[in-house]
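agent> fetching stored inputs for the magnesium ion docking request
agent> found them:
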Amino acid sequence: MAETEENIEHPSHKRTCMCRPLNIPRTKPTPEVLNLLKDLQLTDDNLKQYMKLLMTDIRKGLARATHPTSIVKCYPTYIQDLPTGRETGKYLALDLGGTNFRVLVIELEKNHFEMTSRTFVIPQDKMVGSGKDLFDHVAACLHVFIKEQKLEQECLPLGFTYSFPLVQEALNKGIIERWTKGFKCDDVLGRDVVQLLQDSLVRRGIQKNVKIQAVINDTAGTLMSCAWKSPYCRIGLIVGTGTNACYVEKLTNAEMFNGPNKGSGVVLINCEWGAFGDDGTLNFIRTPEDIQIDETSINPGKQIHEKMISGMYMGELVRLLILRCVKARLLFGGRDSVDLNQKDKFQTKYVSEIEAQKPGNHDRCKAILENLGMQNLSDQDLQNVRFICECVSRRAAHMCAAGLSTLIKKTEEKRITIGIDGSVYRHHPYFHYLMMEKMKVLVKPGVVFDLMLSEDGSGRGAALTAASASSSIY
Ligand code: ADP
Ligand code: MG
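agent> prediction call returned; pasting tokens
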């Protein structure tokens, strides 16, 4: 499959929309529902406060003295050079770190690339079992792919997109710090993820086909893949199963960086901002439903920021807020259903589907709720449910906007492009516009920014990183 920019439809590709965002619909709920959901609406003052707190935590993460106790870790990666656009060659890539696990082969040519990928399922028991089982499964899938693509006679460099918190010690060495997003293989905490994968490749007998060159996370991959196209790209953002961001920082500020200075004077910082709020910092904007989601998760107390924003939790937040309104007898005449009371039954993609309908058209909303066992829905009920969806997606987009505005300020750049990936940003009809709208309020006047949809950062970004690693080795 050859991918080009043209075949992906997204608002960030329509440059004219960047300056004049379309009217973002705002559904009118009943005054009682509006009042009951007040705590979901973040004011600009809330967001400015959030920005101050995030900036403080980023500085803590960067400084050697405060890093150990910092919540936002700001790990230095070992990426010091952004792509030149001249990278060439054939690479394998793995993308592990959320809902889908993918294996890819990418051929980079000047200003052009070809990519073939296959998605594999990670069974639930492997997500929460032993690390050995998980990485053996990864190696088995890679083996299937190598056979399918007839790569048995080759030895290809591999870029490993591993999107969980990692303490990197080299481009091809990273210590597993924490599992997130529904994964929990705690027996391998503290172990080198590259070595774990290498051991599995050996057990599988495919070590001769693969040379693991680099491990990066998806935010770094996103930044790299956008930087390949845009010389102004300095920030990468993910809003998918989880959320995280990375940015280009001056080496002098990255006190935790231990590697050799390769000359660029900068290093890519993996913020791990999903953990923002784990020390209570975000309590001033958390709702009872945020607390419930955290308490019933497999990692209570962890990834508080992520749990307020990302795709793994957004639908569940909507479900819990629907129940809040039902309990107050402001929705469905106080009725509920078995399904509506079941965790995760309201999927995040429903939020996009409901909001994608023209205002006033509630067909999809009605079908979704009927599917969840609700009947005799009034128009006002449907309108209120759409309003709940809008509250949740708007809050998430505004928090991302505030996070990015903080990073833009930190880079001190006057013109900057932000590469973004993840299904929430990609598929929600207004996420892009909601972010743009709020960033225009929060970013210092005179600073020019744009948001660019990344075309497969985890694949191409990993290949580009493997390419730069290969070129510095050979
Ligand atoms: P990952 O982050 O795991 O690499 P994705 O970027 O595809 O993968 O994000 C997956 C998340 O996106 C899931 O939590 C899913 O609920 C959510 N998602 C899937 N489809 C949509 C959609 N149409 N709108 C919003 N969110 C979606
Ligand atoms: Mg991904």
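agent> quick read of the result: The chain has 16 helices and 13 strands.
agent> awaiting further instructions
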